UniProtKB/TrEMBL annotation:
GO biological process, one term: transmembrane transport
Family assignment from sequence similarity: Belongs to the mitochondrial carrier (TC 2.A.29) family.
Name this polypeptide is given: Mitochondrial adenine nucleotide transporter ADNT1
PROSITE patterns linked: SOLCAR
Its membrane topology: Multi-pass membrane protein
Compartment(s) where it occurs, according to its Swiss-Prot or TrEMBL record: Mitochondrion inner membrane
Gene Ontology CC entries for this record: mitochondrial inner membrane
Length: 357
């Protein structure tokens, strides 16, 4: 009987503790404070949503992504890819269906964590920037402005790019391999190991500086244009497109398309230079990028400025926009799909905070 009393007492205490804990969580929820477990779960869901958004959007435009990189680094004296339609047909004819998606697996391995970190970093950076902005006298009730969103997006882009840059470097080299080039890299891990052994650790971050400089306007403008355009549409309701402070999927896709167009046009030359710098040090890249018997000067860049100078001198200013058309065709749906997928997955997972908030 004594043991039964002890068990009953413990059971009663456990029930009381459970009720107290639930009451505490309810109180925290009413006060707008999330329990630690809830916060961790929310972070995980946000990261998952960002990762899914990145994987879905990049896979949808993988053939255009590969063609863009091939156009960026191809030998200007031996043109194989001449435009979007012709380039895609050439890849299909010479490498088949799989050739259109070559490097996409590696790209997804890179873009999933990159996208997850980018979206999550944007949410955290925008919250922090807004908090700092509200500390100024008379700004207590201020909202995010396009400039603040641009700053938050730039922070998110730098963090995500730096965290996953070696994978981007490897993806560029794997994507450039064609049916006639030495298949030096069998996959991401193999490529990482070979580059580290043959070229050193610094080679994994070759082209990082133009990447970071380019990602500031690219990601910053993507978030700033997307969110500002959405806010404007919701507040002004032109043509009755906004109902109950919500936009349709089609309208959000259009906002994402506009954001992608602005961002990629501003940052594209830096993307070209990044790709070319990533080829430096790869002994088999000469068979892909330079003509036979021609000096390898185009592959020997001492830095970002030198790469800009040599590219313009040897190929003209237009070379800085090689691959822009397939990239434009790719970026517009890619950014649009990424934003809409991100918000849709967060809705499915039940995450309260969205980038619009």
């Amino acid at each position: 009987m004594a043991s039964e009393d002890v068990v009953g007492k413990r059971t009663g205490e456990s029930a009381v503790n459970t009720i107290v804990n639930l009451a505490e969580e309810a109180k925290l929820a009413r006060e707008g404070v999330k329990a630690p477990g809830h916060a961790v779960l929310s972070i995980c869901k946000s990261l998952v949503a960002g990762g899914v958004a990145g994987g879905v959007s990049r896979t949808a435009v993988a053939p255009l992504e590969r063609l863009k990189i091939l156009l960026q680094v191809q030998n200007p004296h031996s043109i194989k890819y001449n435009g979007t339609i012709q380039g895609l047909k050439y890849i299909w004819r010479t490498e088949g269906f799989r050739g259109l998606f070559k490097g996409n697996g590696t790209n997804c391995l890179r873009i999933v964590p990159n996208s997850a970190v980018k979206f999550f970093s944007y949410e955290q950076a925008s919250s922090a920037i807004l908090w700092l902005y509200r500390q100024q006298p008379g700004k207590e009730d201020a909202e995010l402005t396009p400039v603040l969103r641009l700053g938050a997006g730039a922070c998110a882009g730098i963090i995500a790019m730096s965290a996953t840059y070696p994978m981007d470097m490897v993806r560029g080299r794997i994507t450039v391999q064609t049916e006639k080039s030495p298949y030096q890299y069998r996959g991401m891990l193999h490529a990482l190991g070979m580059i580290y052994r043959e070229e050193g650790f610094r080679a994994l971050y070759r082209g990082w500086l133009p990447s970071v400089i380019g990602v500031i306007p690219y990601v910053g403008l993507n978030f700033a244009v997307y969110e500002s355009l959405k806010d404007w549409l919701i507040k002004t309701k032109p043509f009755g497109i906004a109902e109950n402070s919500e936009l349709s999927v089609v309208t959000r896709l259009a906002c994402g398309a506009a954001a992608g167009t602005v961002g990629q046009t501003v940052a594209y030359p830096l993307d070209v230079i990044r790709r070319r710098m990533q080829m430096v040090g790869w002994k088999d890249a000469a068979s892909i990028v330079t003509a036979e018997g021609r000096s390898k000067e185009l592959l020997e860049y001492t830095g970002m400025i030198d790469a800009f100078r040599k590219t313009v001198r040897h190929e003209g200013f237009r070379a800085l926009y090689k691959g822009l058309i397939p990239n434009s065709v790719k970026v517009v749906p890619s950014i649009a799909i990424a934003f809409v997928t991100y918000e849709a997955v967060k809705d499915i997972l039940g995450v309260e905070m969205r980038i619009s908030d």
